[in-house]
């Protein structure tokens, strides 16, 4: 028997208000996924991996930095500036928590 849209529906079932909106934005979610996979990455690596523009990437990284989710390291390599990014402990914890919530949501939707 097919369910009708109102059968057994609890309006608070998905709790989307609990998602971390800083991480959940698609570009930042991808950046966080990359940072989770590497100890540290350069701006140019993220630029290549995400296909974002310089300005767009910089804006997303600034939002993650403002939230305390990433560490930024600036140095010179062969007389050229090089900026590297890594997760802060708070950022790594927030990312993992966000992914867990997404997995639970997907599981709920698969069994809805």
Structural class: alpha+beta
Specify the CATH architecture: Orthogonal Bundle
| Uncertain regions spanning at least 5 consecutive residues | none
Q: Strands of the biggest beta sheet: in what spatial order? A: 1-3-2
Q: What is the number of independent domains? A: 1
State which percent range the strand residues make up: 15-25%
Q: What count of helical segments does DSSP give?
A: 5
> What's the shape?
elongated
Report the major sheet. 3 strands, antiparallel
CATH fold assignment: Arc Repressor Mutant, subunit A
For the record, give the distance between the C-alpha atoms at the N and C termini, rounded to a whole number: 14 Å
CATH level-four homologous superfamily name: Winged helix-like DNA-binding domain superfamily/Winged helix DNA-binding domain
Radius of gyration: 18 Å
N-to-C series of helices and strands: HHEHHEEH
Mean pLDDT: 89
Features:
elongated; alpha+beta; Arc Repressor Mutant, subunit A; 53% helix
Task: Report on the architecture of this protein.
The chain is α+β, with helices and mostly antiparallel strands. It has one domain (23-110): Arc Repressor Mutant, subunit A (Orthogonal Bundle). It is built from 5 helices and 3 strands, in the order ααβααββα. The chain is elongated, with a radius of gyration of 18 Å. The mean pLDDT is 89.
Would you spell out the secondary-structure blueprint of this structure?
Blueprint: H1 21-24, H2 26-37, E1 41-42, H3 43-50, H4 54-66, E2 70-77, E3 80-87, H5 89-110
Antiparallel strand pairs: 1-3, 2-3
């Amino acid at each position: 028997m097919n369910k009708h849209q109102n059968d057994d529906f609890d309006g608070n079932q998905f709790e989307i208000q609990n998602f971390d909106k800083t991480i959940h934005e698609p570009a930042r979610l991808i950046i966080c996924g990359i940072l989770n996979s590497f100890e540290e990455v350069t701006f140019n690596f993220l630029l290549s991996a995400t296909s974002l523009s310089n300005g767009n990437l910089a804006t997303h990284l600034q939002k993650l930095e403002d939230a305390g989710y990433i560490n930024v390291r600036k140095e010179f390599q062969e007389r050229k500036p090089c900026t590297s990014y890594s997760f802060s402990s708070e950022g790594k914890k927030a990312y993992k928590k966000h992914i867990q919530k997404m997995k639970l949501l997907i599981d709920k939707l698969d069994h809805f």
